[in-house]
Amino acid sequence: MKDTLGVLLAGGAGERLFPLTRDRAKPAVPFGGHYRIIDITLSNCINSGLRKVFILTQYKALSLNRHVREGWTGIVAQELGEFFELLPPMQRTGANWYMGTADAVYQNIYSIGSEQPKHMIILSGDHIYKMNYSRMLEHHKETNAEVTLATLPIPPDEVSRFGVVEVGSKGEVLGFQEKPQSTTFRSPFNPDSVDASMGIYIFNTEVLLKALIADAEDPDSKHDFGHNILPNMLGKKKMVAYSFVDENKKGQALYWRDVGTLDAYYDANMDLCSVSPVFNLYDRNWPIRTRVRQYPPAKFVFGEPGRTGSAINSVITAGVIISGASVSNSVVSQDVRVNSYSDVDASIIFSHVNIGRHCRIKRAIIDRDVHIPEGTVIGYDQVEDKRRYFVTPSGLTIVTRDASLFENPVDPDFLQRY
Hints:
- By secondary structure, this protein is of the alpha/beta class.
- It folds into two domains: 4-270, Spore Coat Polysaccharide Biosynthesis Protein SpsA, Chain A; 299-417, UDP N-Acetylglucosamine Acyltransferase, domain 1 (3 Solenoid).
- It contains nine helices and 31 strands.
- The strands form seven sheets. Strands 1, 4, 5, 6, 8, 9, 10, 11 and 12 form a nine-stranded mixed sheet that branches.
- The longest helix is centred in the first third of the chain and has 12 residues, at 37-48.
- The two termini are 41 Å apart.
């Protein structure tokens, strides 16, 4: 990995995660109580030996920048030339913000050139998975590829959510379609599935830079890897597929989650709550790191009948006090107080939340710094919830600090348009 540079795309607006992304970038959204979404990819980098990474940020990046600066820059040896470097749009090549994934890399072409890497790994900061990028780089070198795409199998009826790849019997890429409604592509290894791009690419640096320059000069381009860069390279450069090797070590199914929607984000968090979590945070051989905050240990108090502090099948983090309340099947972040006689089930509670007495909360996401008044009921009456909060079509309720803004909107479809 010494001659390899990682470029992590972390500037997406995350519209489909609204309202969680109203005040923060998508990769900065909390995950698993203790982490941010971006921590998963950054941990993969460290565990893979990738220690030179540019992190390209853009929208609402204050909390993301602070998290990376305070939690990650000290992990690598800067005196040895290692870095996790934040790069906001600096407009060196024009007056625009990042206009697409390819343009984001192109706008930092001078920073890339100063490192003179032999290979570049393009990563996304909004997926949940465990992957050893050094294995993929080894495959890239062994096949003498100029471009390598990481792929995983998906059902044919899900292709509209992915870039899909036609892979030959020897692993060569024969075709690429970005989010088609349907496709005739089928995996040569399993005729019942389609090989989908994971949005993880390895390029020979010279090949990528030439492609980025040509793309920047094309006025009709969307300046996107999936729409433009990869299709334009087909048949011109040696492009191979790399089948995802899962480091999660939990069962036979590959674990990779795109947490781009509220329901997908919720499901990924719920994966952590079972007795044997689907996504294993406790593997000492593949640790997940984050910025560590100093809080006292979690505490459970009162043991009276009907007033027992307890948490079952839940992730509970530091600074939490569950005071005579019941928490089940939930993820509770730092510095949360759940007061007596309340019941929290199948929910995600962000940090610095205070839940008053006699509350009932089910299938909800409570944003940080929210105070839930005594006797509040959330998740049991969708009609009432839609008057006060953001509710997804599946019935998941999102409560934010300014929930009053959602009371009695002039347009009754206001919430559902997001």
